[in-house]
Write a structure and sequence with these properties.
InterPro entries: AraC-bd, Homeodomain-like_sf, HTH_AraC, HTH_AraC-typ_CS, RmlC-like_jellyroll, RmlC_Cupin_sf
Strand order of the largest sheet: 1-8-3-6
Shape: globular
Strand content: 15-25%
Organism: Pseudolactococcus chungangensis CAU 28 = DSM 22330
CATH architecture of the largest domain: Sandwich
Largest sheet: 4 strands, antiparallel
Structural class: alpha+beta
Order of helices and strands: EEEEEEEEHHHHHHHHHHH
Protein name: AraC-type DNA-binding protein
Oligomer: single chain
Radius of gyration: 20 Å
CATH topology of the largest domain: Jelly Rolls
Number of strands: 8
Distance between the termini: 26 Å
Number of helices: 11
CATH superfamily of the largest domain: Regulatory protein AraC
Keywords: DNA-binding, Transcription, Transcription regulation
GO molecular function, one term: sequence-specific DNA binding
Helix content: 40-55%
Length: 288
């Protein structure tokens, strides 16, 4: 299982990573500081984002804002291009647009290309195809081309990316700007990843990073936007949703594997979050 927080390693001095994610059938929930775009070239991909499941078909795209938690489950023959880039690429002093403005642009955007105009879909898909082509035959001009296409992409998004009609709750991780905070959070999430099936106390997780419970609570809420207990429950719910979509197990086993202390607690927390029972959720996923 990969770390819940992903520290992206760029393969370009432009702070850009592009790769073809072919025949990888699933990912566990994760997030990173970088903006990510998934562009489906073949097949379909089921996306878990903001407690919802959505399906992307061929030629469709989705944008994950900085710090947005997401996961996917794809069809066996799917092919998709993945683009990850740091908003620091776009120099504030040179371009006159603050990084905070760009963060907010994506935080409040209609991220699914189904909600975009036909013109925007065509322009963005053309630019993404050109970006991907730069990885196939590297030349002396490749980084100039990548930066140019990214600048065009951001310009188009600033002008045409539709925004949500109502303001969203602030993104949980939009303030993750410093690598030292990411390293601390990586320790926390790594611990959750390997111990979520156990009873994790606030004292134990605070001691892990050398904080008092009081300071840890403030640190976690500042960066994640919710309490540690709320986050832990959400993480366990993500595990449960993944298990329900992949395996046929008794609900007692699903509760145990996803870290809930009892099937009663699991059923209560799941229904409160999803509005339906775990069994109903599993049936809905299987019927799609």
């Amino acid at each position: 299982m990969s770390h819940y927080i992903e520290l992206v390693k760029f393969d370009s001095p432009v702070n850009l990573k592009i790769f073809e994610n072919e025949n990888t059938l699933a990912s566990f929930p994760h997030f990173h500081k970088e903006v990510e775009i998934i562009y489906v070239k073949k097949g379909c991909v089921n996306i878990a984002y903001q407690n919802e499941m959505m399906v992307l078909h061929e030629s469709e795209m989705i944008i994950f804002p900085s710090g947005a938690t997401h996961a996917f489950l794809s069809s066996p023959d799917s092919v998709r291009y993945v683009y990850q880039f740091d908003l620091a690429i776009f120099d504030e002093k040179l371009l006159g647009v603050s990084q905070l403005h760009l963060i907010q642009l994506f935080d409040h955007a209609q991220v699914d290309s189904k909600n975009w105009s036909d013109e925007l879909v065509q322009i963005v898909s053309d630019l993404l195809d050109k970006l991907f082509q730069t990885t196939l035959v590297p030349t002396i001009s490749v980084h100039y081309l990548q930066l140019g296409y990214l600048m065009q992409l951001m310009g188009i998004f600033l002008e045409q990316l539709p925004q949500e009609a109502t303001e969203k709750k602030a993104g949980h991780h939009a303030e993750l700007k410093y690598k030292e905070d990411l390293v601390l959070l990586n320790q926390i999430f790594s611990y959750i990843e390997t111990h979520f099936q156990e009873d994790i106390t606030l004292d134990a997780i605070s001691a892990l990073v050398g904080f008092s419970p009081y300071y840890f609570t403030r640190f976690f809420k500042k960066h994640i936007g919710q309490t540690f207990i709320q986050f832990l429950n959400d993480y366990r719910l993500e595990q449960a949703r993944y298990i329900l979509s992949q395996e046929r197990l008794p609900m007692v086993a699903v509760a145990e594997k996803s870290g809930f202390s009892s099937v009663k607690t699991f059923h209560h927390v799941f229904k409160k979050s999803q509005g339906i029972s775990p069994l109903q959720y599993q049936k809905h996923i299987n019927d799609q």
